[in-house]
């Protein structure tokens, strides 16, 4: 029997299968782009009345008065950016510490490492409203009595600690956001650190380096771009978080230098007021708030991708 026709048939089937797979994955990728495009178009279309009425003044306005139809988004942008920055400032060191422990130190402890890793990942499965309830009934009073109170008593001359603590404020919102992003950043960072080749570690150990020197000079630089990507994922979680922040931030559209003052975020405003719109301009302004949030998320991701690209290119040039 001549095997050539059979081989040709199999080759034709493979070619058709490869072509079908390429078409399927290309369609999936195109679908994401199309979805993103239509999402932006829909937001722009439904906010056109507010865009025409206020223009750029909507972004820099500080007054939000639905009764007199005066709308400015700056206090909400300020609250979103500030609480997200606090979340990164507090949560990133903890997340990296957990990831380094799980990837570098807990490998030799067969029970502690997997158990701790599972507990960290379990935090990501807790609904945000549970974090909000915990923050409202436990974290806020604890912050007021044991953290903000002493800070105000001893460092109240500083503007960031100058306001009388109330518990439900920007600092508490930042802390609860930090707790919520820790599972995401630590889990992704742990996987990235585990992917670092052992040759990187062995080369440092052969030179007589300590465990900390191996981690600091070999492992972390190699995984730098991946850790930065994990950080951006955590930042995206912080920017888009709604319920937990809404319950502990106080929901007052103010711009203050004090971390003990009440604040408001873009997501909290949408949740609290979207169903209460009483006029076309009010509804359009609410949709524009969503457009601002959409643009802020895109800007953060674009900025992150640019930095990662530059870091990767610089690493290649050094090699």
Short description, anyone?
Helices cover about 75% and strands about 0% of the residues. By secondary structure, it is an all-alpha fold.
Describe what you observe in this structure.
It is a single chain. The longest helix has 43 residues, at 4-46. Strands 1-2 form a two-stranded antiparallel sheet. Helices cover 76% and strands 1% of the residues. The protein has 13 helices and 2 strands, in the order αααββαααααααααα. A hairpin with a 4-residue loop joins β1 (64-65) and β2 (70-71). The radius of gyration is 25 Å and the shape is globular. It is mainly α and 319 residues long. It has 2 domains: 4-34; 76-273, MetI-like (MetI-like fold).
Topology of this structure?
Blueprint lengths: L3 H43 L1 H7 L2 H4 L3 E2 L4 E2 L2 H32 L6 H13 L3 H28 L14 H25 L3 H9 L4 H12 L1 H17 L2 H6 L17 H8 L6 H39 L1
Antiparallel strand pairs: 1-2
Text of the CATH class of the largest domain: Mainly Alpha
Taken from the alpha-carbon principal axes, the silhouette is: globular
Structural domains: how many: 2
Low-pLDDT runs: none
The name CATH uses for the topology of the largest domain is MetI-like fold
Distance between the termini: 55 Å
What's the CATH H-level superfamily name of the largest domain?
MetI-like
Helix-residue proportion:
over 70%
Major beta-sheet overview: 2 strands, antiparallel
Mean pLDDT: 86
Structural class by SSE content? mainly alpha
Q: Which sequence of strands runs across the widest sheet?
A: 1-2
Quaternary status of these chains? single chain
Radius of gyration over C-alpha positions, nearest whole angstrom: 25 Å
Number of helices, where a helix is a run of at least 4 consecutive DSSP H or I residues: 13
- Number of separate strands: 2
Q: If classified by CATH, what would the architecture of the largest domain be?
A: Orthogonal Bundle
């Amino acid at each position: 029997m001549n095997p050539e026709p059979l081989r040709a048939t199999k080759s034709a089937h493979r070619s058709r299968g490869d072509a079908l797979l390429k078409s399927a994955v290309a369609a999936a990728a195109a679908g994401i782009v199309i979805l993103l495009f239509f999402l932006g178009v829909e937001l722009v279309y439904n906010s056109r009345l507010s865009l025409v009425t206020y223009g750029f003044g909507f972004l820099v306005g500080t007054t939000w008065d639905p009764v007199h139809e005066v709308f400015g988004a700056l206090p909400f942008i300020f609250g979103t950016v500030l609480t997200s920055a606090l979340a990164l400032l507090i949560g990133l060191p903890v997340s990296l510490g957990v990831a380094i422990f799980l990837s570098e130190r807990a490998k030799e402890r067969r029970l502690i490492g997997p158990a701790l890793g599972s507990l960290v990942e379990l935090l990501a499965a807790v609904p945000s409203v549970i974090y909000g309830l915990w923050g409202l009934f436990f974290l806020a009073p604890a912050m007021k009595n044991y953290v903000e109170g002493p800070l105000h008593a001893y460092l109240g001359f500083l503007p960031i600690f100058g306001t009388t603590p109330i518990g439900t404020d920007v600092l508490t919102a930042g802390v609860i956001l930090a707790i919520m992003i820790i599972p995401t950043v630590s889990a992704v960072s742990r996987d990235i650190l585990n992917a670092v080749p052992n040759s990187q570690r062995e080369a440092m150990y052969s030179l007589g380096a300590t465990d900390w020197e191996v981690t600091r000079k070999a492992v972390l630089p190699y995984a730098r771009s991946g850790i930065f990507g994990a950080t951006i994922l955590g930042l995206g979680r912080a920017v888009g978080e709604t319920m937990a922040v809404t319950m502990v931030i106080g929901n007052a559209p103010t711009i203050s230098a004090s971390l003990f003052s009440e604040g408001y975020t873009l997501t909290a405003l949408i949740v609290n007021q979207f169903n209460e719109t009483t006029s076309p301009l009010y509804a359009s302004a609410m949709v524009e708030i969503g457009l601002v949030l959409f643009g802020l998320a895109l800007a953060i991701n674009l900025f992150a991708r640019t930095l990662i690209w530059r870091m990767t290119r610089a690493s290649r040039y050094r090699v």
